[in-house]
Amino acid sequence: MKKQLIYGLLFFLVIGNSFAQQTPAPKQTKVYTIKGATAHLGNGEVIENSVIMFANGKITFVGHANMNTAMQQGIIINATGKHVYPGFIAANSTLGLGEVDAVKASLDVQEVGSMNPHIRSIIAYNAESKVVESMRPNGVFMGQITPRGGRISGTSTIVQFDAWNWEDATIKVDDGIHMNWPGSITYGRWWLGEDPSAKINPNYVKTIRSLEEYIANAKTYLNGNKTPKNLEFEAIEELLNGRKKLFVHTHGEREIIDAINFANKFNFKLVIVGGDEAYKITDVLVKNNVPVILQRAHRIPNGDDSDYDFSYKLAKLLIDKGVTVAVGMNGQMERMNTRNLPFYVGTYAAHGIDKEEALKMITSNSAKILGIDDKVGTIAVGKDATLFISEGDALDMRGNIISDAFIQGRKISLETHQTKLWKRYATKYKHQK
Amino acid sequence: MKKILLVFLFFSAIMMHSQEYFPTNAGIKTTKNTTVAFTNATIYVTPSQLIKKGTLLVKNGKVIEVGRRVKIPNGVKTIDLSGKSIYPSFIEVYSNFGVKRPTPTPNRSRLTQYESNRKGYYWNDHIRPETNAFVSFNYDTKKAMALLKAGFGVVNTHQADGIARGTGVLVALNSNSTDAYRIIDTKSGQYFSLNKSSMSRQVYPNSFMGKTALLRQVFIDADWYSKGTTTNKDISLEAINANKGLSQIFDTGGNNLNAIRMDKVGDENGIQFSFVGSGHEYENIQEIKSMNATMIVPVNFRKAYDVSNPYLANQLELNDMRRWNQEPSNLAVLAKNNVNFTITTHSLKSLAGFQKNIQKAIRYGLSETKALEALTTIPAKLLGKSSKIGSLQKGSYANFLITSGPIFETSTKIYENWVQGTKHVINDMHAIDVSGTYKLSYNNQSLDLTISGKRATLKKGDKKLKAKYSFKDNWVQITLNNQNDGSKFTRFVGLLNSKMNAFSGKVIDKAGNESTWTAIKTNDAKKKASKKKKKTKSATPFVVPVSYPNVGYGFTSAPKQQDILFKNATVWTSEREGVLKNTDVLLKDGKIAKIGKNLRARGAKVIDATGKHLTAGIIDEHTHIALSSSNEVGHNSVAEVTMEDAINPADMNIYRNLAGGVTSAQLLHGSANPIGGRSAIIKLKWGETADNMVYTNTPKFIKFALGENVKQSRSTTSTRFPQTRMGVEQVYMDYFQRAKEYDAKKKSGKPYRKDLEMEVLAEILNKERFITCHSYVQSEINMLMKVAERFNFNINTFTHILEGYKVADKMKKHGVGGSTFSDWWAYKYEVNDAIPFNAAIMHNQGITVAINSDDREMSRRLNQEAAKTIKYGGMTEEAAWNMVTINPAKLLHLDDRVGSIKVGKDADVVLWTGHPMSIYTKAETTIIEGKVYFDLSQDLAKRKAIKEERSTLMNMMLNEKNNGGKVQAPKKNVKRVLHCDTVNTELN
Questions:
Q1: Which residues of A touch B317 (CB under 8 A)?
Q2: Which whole number is the average pLDDT over A67-82?
Q3: Do A265 and A371 sit in the same domain of this protein?
Q4: Range of A209's domain?
Q5: Looking at the partner chain, which of B311, B552, B870 has a beta carbon nearest the beta carbon of A398?
Q6: Three-state SS for B817?
Q7: Is the CB of residue B109 less than 8 Å from the CB of residue B100?
Q8: Are the beta carbons of A100 and B829 separated by less than 8 Å?
Q9: Quick check: A339 and B832 CB within 8 A?
Q10: Which of B284, B317, B374, B811 could form a disulfide with B256 if both were Cys (CB 3.0 to 4.6 A apart)?
């Protein structure tokens, strides 16, 4: 057993190191066929003993092994007993915008100012981030890179995680504008000695009105001769014409209702990000066709009286009522923890939803919500060959062990700063023996 | 005119009380010593000694006789109080009456201050026992009047500033006298609190643990100082010693846990504190009772929360709603449990509601006698002044109230409050009630005047007229609006003729013409039905039951130890036996009794565990849940503090951790200092007291820390040594060298100053206490091992130890264990090289490795974190599982008691719905010592109960609002997360 492990390790050392760290894989030239695996398509379907083929970066065949034995060609990967998944998508992420939380110089997450629709995340996206590369061994291959802060935080872009630079990385440029919705309730700042009571925010409605006015002004500007140029309003144009979506970050029941009314007023395509209380108004969400990007399941519930599993079962409460749900990442240590995305979904599955349904929250649903479902999100003919092979259930820590990974058909390295250190010190101790 | 009157009063007051040996130049020297007899009154000499139709004889401000058959000497002024009652006036034990808070000299420095401002005093500026409140005392006439109105005759006041606050002043509320007479005692007690002085920015102590440790050291030092072996002068310690005989009053900031903690400090030093309480002592009544302290309890019952807006109402937590409902029953509960208590107005925003709140407490079951005792005899006793105040025994001060009837009845009026024989009129007892219907005639006009109490209405026929009425000192005044022209008036002024039941006087019309008027009574006022009174008396208020802890998911009855037989489980032993399939496990008397097949046990509860997995309870080597405070940052070494002083058994994270299968945890000090505080190692016995959670014969541990946090790298205001890793080593060298010398001196038998910090460090040198050290990079890990080796001891555990994989060989050689995160990194510069393969590499080198949380959320999923070591580094499932059970038990020296399923060990087990490391598994039942502390079905029942109780209380609060009760905005309990890095936080 031990011997096997050492041989395995040695193999890894030789082969693993043949891929240069961080070097993006070249364009797919040879056809790949993955056969025998249990394929989780990302749309809820599973194919046991499957065959998946891709060429020139696109998936060319998905089916049962006995459907096409003759057609198998190119590099054939026998994945019998293993599982294939579409690459996971992290919605609402700051990956590549920051490296070390406590080192301010390494952060490009949040711009100053309140109305920043013109601020574009893609500009600061670091395709060579050590944190970004650490996503890949867990199956997280894509992210919606999103600026934070202010009332309107800025514009996000969707990228894949194997690229030379930010231009290479893009899947969909400027997909949406992110807005932090005001809160209808305020609390005294107890740490400054203020009364910690909850109060109705006297400026809540005023803030919404000023947002409406801001959009109305943008509309007036865009319908006019546009001189002098207004960069903020220019950025709003695609929101008004429906090319960009509006991502409203908010949790409260009343806030979500108000955000929906706001979006309807301007015919915005709305997505709610956060949505802890969305389960209370699922009918409104379904009726208005508004999806929700939930936060990670691994959170402490708000307030002592909450159910201990409140944040674990949130997805079930929405999915059971027909809301389209994805999972995103923001909050404490959000970047490095994004690699746990599959396990958040696993936890959501543990608390009341079907595993394949849960999987959708980081594959097909995310793709749909982010407007990239024509390219990624499921294993389907014509889509990008962005997928991976896992030893076991990729939503479970014990099964999420990835042997082969492809982004747009390119076989990517699974090496990281961390695996490099691992191997370096494993070698150190080996030589001591 | 008014001014002259005041001046006159002032002089007369001085004359009345001119001290006998003082010269006078204001006139001739006279002495007044009139005796006054109060006769025919119902006299409460003490709350339980009642004299009906008694006489009270008062001379020179003191009671000279009281009884039924008191002989009244000649030349005595007699006041007949037939139908009226006399009570000893109340005593306020805790106040800052007349003593202003000191104003600090502004300090513009933005740097943190570590040293004290003063010399010749104790080394910590927050210890100010030498403060004498009398020096800054200024009698506050306005506040005195409010207190007199509320029934108080004596106030005990002090300088409310600092941790040790010095001595207080006992003052009689004799507003017409001078300090020469009304000061009863200039050293009426010694005061303590947990609030730092506003006079200094010295940062130590910033935590509960630090404050506790500081007080301990102060008492030890005072004792040492009293032996005269010290060369320096310490005015503070001299004061502590001088104040020893006084009553010791401790304000613990309205927090039961603090009172319980400080009572322990008192016990250790032979001091019995009296505690200024919280008003919700009932939540911890058993512990409060066993303190044997006198509690000084506020009656600041909270207003109902305004829950009419459901969004706002959602913010409220059950505990706050319950307290609204339960607080009025607090005094009754204290009385029922025979806790000595006094009642204080301290923390009441206004004294106006004081009587009402006492009445409310009585409605909730407090006896009137107890209430009276709590305001008179008990505070007198607490202050050691029973012979002078609090009763009307012969020789006491003549401090008493004259009331219309039983003092705590709603209809009762306080007429007069006599202090030291001086009368203060609260309500004129000779006031005449002129209520009734009158016929008012003037200038051939006739009106109907109806007076009820202070109000009156005027009618002409059926038509109500606009008018203003007042009646004072027998004079009546009415201003009547002209019927045709609202801007013109007719004025009446007149005198009451009480014998005739009539008023008569002068009327001036709008044109200024004067004539006469009369008003003759035609009917007495209708007596209001006495039905209402009866109704309020009979209604027993509804009080929701208290749970332990008194929050949602608390236990209303403590879980019982049961014998439990698990049948047919997959058992993860965490022992050499590994995982046993289809196995039975018997728990008996709180221990694991049998493991095997086809077990039977009479009387045991049988649980079918087919398809389920049974494991030992998870042990978290590193957490900060269940704590009120986590970091004492005031010094670079704080070995003197212990987290056992800061355990918060009501933290909901305990319950949530149980729901994640955690049964034991090491509550660690934060990482602000190279030498941190001592640990509390607890079992998560939800509902138990802090003391009962701590392990019996608990292993002794202390937290050390290295790197960015102890260097205070991210602070822009710190100047504390050390600021580099080079300095960190020298901190250790210095402290251990000193500890070595200290220990040698101690062992030599020579007299030595007991130093709590050195005592703890000496324990480390003597291998009695173990170090768990927060550590990140390899250089510092190596350094600490070398320091330890130089002083001939071993580091027990490196916690976090994220670069442990780089020096695993050295760690193995040293014999230290590692307790690490599964996959955290990149949150600060020093974790740049943290890798998730760390646990596996260290394990492969033969190190005992645990996976810890340092996070209240992660701790409830440590089973999943253990599973990550299978993904990262290829650990076997059994080895992975050991990292959250037997390995942390080994690191904590608890492996003989917990951490595995082995016969004889504590019955701390978890039944899981499936494979314990599967993401799809939940903890179903969590058991500690045979008691079920968490269970999925119990949890569902509790959720339902919370929902019901919330609606019950919300309806009650809405009802209160609709009936005109006062309400307040809902509050949100913001819970701060405690991590290693959390500083300056004190939670309740």
A1: 303-305
A2: 85
A3: yes
A4: 89-376
A5: B870
A6: strand
A7: no
A8: yes
A9: no
A10: B284
CATH of the domain at A251: 3.20.20.140
CB–CB contact B708 A102 (8 Å): yes
Based on the fold, state whether residues A143 and A253 are members of the same structural domain.
yes
B709-768 residues touching A, CB cutoff 8 A: 714
Query: What are the tens digits of pLDDT across the range B97-154?
Result: 999 989 887 877 888 899 999 999 999 999 999 999 999 999 999 999 999 999 999 9
Structure tokens at A357: 């349904």
Angle at B316 between CA B312 and CA B319, to 5 degrees: 170
Q: What is the token pair recorded at A231?
A: 């960069």
Is A213 domain-assigned? yes
**Which tens digits make up the pLDDT trace of B910-936?**
999 999 999 999 999 999 999 999 999
**Does one domain contain both A298 and A421?**
no
* Res B30: pLDDT: 62
Q: Is there a domain that residue A163 lies in?
A: yes
Distance set, CA B862 to CA A211, B540, B564, B649 (Å):
44, 48, 25, 21
The distance of A238 to chain B (nearest Cα, Å) reads 35
CATH number at residue A46: 2.30.40.10
Tokens 């031990």 correspond to: A2
Number of domains observed in the structure of chain A: 2
Same domain, residue pair A214 and A311: yes
Facing residue for B833 by CB, picked from A336, A340, A421 = A421
Interface residue B113 vs chain A (CB under 8 A): no
Q: Does the pLDDT of residue B293 top 80, yes or no?
A: yes
Domain annotation covers residue A14: no
Q: State the residue for tokens 């951790």.
A: B657
The rounded distance, in Å, linking the Cα atoms of A253 and A185 is 11
Chain A contact for B808 (CB, 8 A cutoff): yes
ipTM of the complex: 0.94
B712: left (phi over 0), alpha (psi -120 to 50) or beta: left
Q: Which of A185, A198, A429 is opposite residue B808, by nearest beta carbon? A: A429
**Is it the case that residue A13 has pLDDT exceeding 60?**
no
Task: Give the nearest chain A residue to B713 (CA atoms).
Answer: A102
The yes-or-no verdict on residue A194 having pLDDT over 90 is no
Angle value at C-alpha A285, between A284 and A290, nearest 5 degrees = 145
Residue A12 sits at the chain B interface (C-beta within 8 Å): no
Whether residue A150 sits in one domain with residue A120: yes
Q: Please identify which residue in the block is written with the tokens 């207190």.
A: B147
Check whether B979 has a pLDDT greater than 70.
no
Residues A96 and A81 both lie in one domain: no
Comparing alpha-carbon positions, the chain B residue that sits nearest to A195 is: B971
CB contact under 8 A, B920 and A350: yes
Residues A255 and A318 in one domain: yes
A130 contacts on B by Cβ (under 8 Å) = 826
Residues 947-976 of B with CB under 8 A from A: 950, 968-974
pLDDT given at position B483: 73
**pLDDT, tens digit (0-9, with 9 covering 90-100), for B934-961:** 999 999 999 999 999 999 999 999 999 9
Q: Smallest CA–CA separation between B970 and chain A, in Å? A: 6
Which of A45-54, B244-253, B295-304, B470-479 is the least confident region? B470-479
A193 and A116, same domain (yes or no): yes
